[in-house]
Amino acid sequence: MKDITTTQDIQLLVNTFYESVRESEIGFFFEEIAQVNWEKHLPKMYIFWQALLFADVKFNGNPMGAHFPINEKMAMEKHHFDTWLSLWKSTVDQLFSGEIAESAKSKAENIASLMAYKMEMDTKLRKL
């Protein structure tokens, strides 16, 4: 298997990943809670991962900020992010192998950990 080296590789990874997410136990967050517009969301994710893995574009979004309104509707808990991470890693492993593929998994681990922590704190603060 080849490593992640092109924008097309990132698009394949992101598209394949979100297909599995939509069919998984966390799919309802995207489909029902957030009601994601996939035509807008997927290109943002291509740029996000391209910025993280290749550092050749700048991502101007606020991923953390985008999740707080969803968390207000339904708490996103650690096990949800564990599922997200498991799906991401299995998708990377299914499609790619190499240094950048390993970096994609490592960066996703950091994202999942930080997101889970921030959403948990947000939920706790709203209950005070």
From TrEMBL:
One protein family per Pfam: Bac_globin
Keywords associated with the record: Heme, Iron, Metal-binding, Transport
MF terms (GO), sorted A to Z: heme binding; metal ion binding; oxygen binding
InterPro entries tied to this protein: Globin-like_sf (IPR009050), Globin/Proto (IPR012292), Hemoglobin_trunc (IPR001486)
Gene3D superfamilies: Globins (1.10.490.10)
Chain residues that bind heme: H41
Protein name (record): Bacterial-like globin family protein
Species of provenance: Cloacibacterium normanense
